[in-house]
Model the fold of this input.
Amino acid sequence: MTARKPVRPTPPARSLRTDPPPRPPRPDLIICCEGGNTEPLYLEAFAARHGVHLKRGTHIFGPCGVPETVFECALKKKKEKDHENRRNRTEFKVWIVIDVDEHAQRIPGLLKRAENKGIEVALSNPCVEVWALYHFDPPPTAELDRYMAQSKLQQRMPSYDKDQGKYFDLGMMNPGYEKAVRNARQARECAEREGTHLPNPSSSLDRLMELIRQMGSRPQPTPASNPA
Done:
């Protein structure tokens, strides 16, 4: 009697679906600011709203003083992070948040130094209040000084007090965020077309805020060990 050949099971059909590529990990951020209230508190609250853990004293540093000392603080933090990365390699970015204000003559050289050292700059002219004003209609277009910008913002944001800490109201700013990004970009593009140096009013803080917002949908970094 002939033995029956074993019946091989039919392999399951291969799925045509492919897994999405893994998302890149979040970079670690180090942000050095001129002030100790306005920028650090706003950045911390904005990051938390988007699920990004940025804490003062760990990721956000201020007050660091005038633009030159802000840069020196950032350079020191970058060197410390570079040294730490000899053991645990993680992607990181260093930013400074500064105002032109009365420092216009020193800013071009500072921007060049920051570029040479790989430090990103969020620059507002004349001050960071321009970024907050960009969240409201109509956006500022005429030249401002710091006191004019602060007074205009106090009119738009009653909780902001230029004499008592100068805190940004994130709740009032959130609805106009996309508008603020557009206004900042349009001012930058207009200045580039016209060849304007340090346009007033302007703010490139949108670049940092967009980075933080994008980080909210990315996983935390996993440190890699050095090869033996």
